[in-house]
Amino acid sequence: MSLIATHYLLLKHTHIALAALSVSLFAARVLGVLVGARWPHRRVLRVASVAIDTLLVAAGGTLWWLLALDAQRDRWLLIKLVLVVAYIGAGSVAMKRARTRAGKAAAFGVALLLVGGVLALALTRDAGVLLRWAG
Which tens digits make up the pLDDT trace of 54-96? Predict the structure, then answer.
C-alpha cells in the first residue's frame, strides 16, 4: 500500500471519528441546555468542543489537499462546506443565541437536518443527493 493510501485511510477514519464525536457532544450539550442544565456551558466542554472541531477541520482540509479536490469541480464539496457553516450557525443559536427553549429546540432540529445533509454528501459525493433526499 502506498504512503498516500495509508495516510488517506488514517485521515478518513480520523475525520469520521471526529465528526461523530463532534456531533455527539453537540447533541448532548444542546439536550442539556433544553432541560435547563448548567453543565453544557462548563469551560471544559466548550474547550473540548473547540479542540475536536479544530482537529475535524484540519483532518478534512488535509483530505481535501490529499485528494486534490476542487470545490468548483466537485460541487458536492462546496455544498458540504456551506452546510457545515450553516450547521455552525444553527448550533450557536441552539446553544446560546435563541432566547426561548422553543427557539433552541428549533435551531437544534435545523442543525441535525444540516448534519444529515453533510453526511449524505460525504457518503455519496453527489451534489444532487439533497434534491432527491428532499423530494
Answer: 999 999 999 988 888 888 888 999 999 999 999 999 999 999 9
Going from the C-alpha of 6 to that of each of 11, 23, 43, the distances in angstroms are 9, 26, 36
pLDDT of residue 131: 86
* CB distance 127 to 93 below 8 Å: no
Would you say 8 and 66 are in contact if contact means Cβ atoms under 8 Å apart?
yes
Q: Report how far apart, in Å, the C-alpha atoms of 117 and of each of 23, 76, 85, 87, 127 are.
A: 13, 10, 12, 10, 10
Q: Domain ranges in the chain?
A: 3-134
Q: Count other Cβ atoms within 10 Å, centred on residue 130.
A: 19
Burial class (CB in 10 A: 0-12, 13-18, 19+), 111: buried
Query: Is the sign of the CA dihedral 87, 88, 89, 94 positive or negative?
Result: positive
Output the pTM of the full model: 0.89
Q: Rounded to whole angstroms, what are the CA distances from 128 to 74, 76, 117?
A: 12, 8, 11
